[in-house]
Amino acid sequence: MASPVQILIVEDDEIISNLISVILEKKGYAVAGKVMTGEDAIMKAAEYQPDLVLMDISLAGALDGITAAQYIYSIFRIPVIFLTGQCDDAILTRAKAAEPYGFLLKPFTSNEIVSNIEIALYNHTIRKRYFDKAALWDMKKIMAALESVIITDTRGRIIFLNPYSCRLLDILEKDALAQPLRKVLILVNKLTGERINDPALDVIRDKIVVSYELNTVLVSLANKKRFVALTARPVKDDKNEMIGVSIQIREKTLTEIKMAEKV
């Protein structure tokens, strides 16, 4: 027996969110989760890997639904259907750029939700044949990785971090999301004692890959010091436009540290 389609609901009106949840479950879909902000939508999309996201456009928080949808589709390749109570030309123009699979105006009926979901799932099945599989992020591996993976937007604000990042930085996920990277990632040059530039802002400014290998010390918010190797690179969408920065941080082994001291 096939597993039910998993759908993530992103809606900051609890009454509407609960109504959608009831409709979906009555129609045989499974609700993967319900969240109220764009930041949480990205994190839960990575964690749950739902088959589809129903996304309200107007959300509280640092990221609206359109911005969150752009990251969810570009990075995770999860289809998104927009929900909105208003639709002017400006909203429609921004929404189209996020490549949604549907657009529902409130109030909507259960039949409208179901028909949009089924069409979106079918179109996504067709579109997946043309995805560049080498460019897709393996979120299961990233979530389980024993190295830090952080993604920022083009303003240097954290929009995703895997569980290991929270342990490395000594910070809770909720306290890190939407914060400027420079507030939670403190890098120091061991030889000079000076703080190293925010790698995300360097990538955003110069549009290049930035690496720190030698004499790089990460100071966590609990003041724990670790030798690390870091690489930051642009994250691009299907149009080859930069939409953010990915930062990978690996804690160095004792052998690596000793070898570096001999150089």
UniProtKB/TrEMBL annotation:
SUPFAM superfamilies attached to this UniProt entry: CheY-like, PYP-like sensor domain (PAS domain)
Sorted UniProt keywords: Phosphoprotein
Alphabetical list of Gene3D superfamilies matching this protein: 3.40.50.2300, PAS domain (3.30.450.20)
Superkingdom, natural source: Archaea
Coiled-coil positions: none
Keyword Phosphoprotein applies: yes
Signal peptide, first to last residue: none
Residues where 4-aspartylphosphate is found: 56
PROSITE patterns noted in UniProt: RESPONSE_REGULATORY (PS50110)
GO annotation terms (biological process): phosphorelay signal transduction system
Presence of the UniProt keyword Phosphoprotein in the record: yes
Domain Response regulatory: 6-121
PANTHER family: RESPONSE REGULATORY DOMAIN-CONTAINING PROTEIN, STRESS RESPONSE REGULATOR PROTEIN 1
Protein name (record): Response regulator receiver protein
Source organism of the structure: Methanoregula boonei (strain DSM 21154 / JCM 14090 / 6A8)
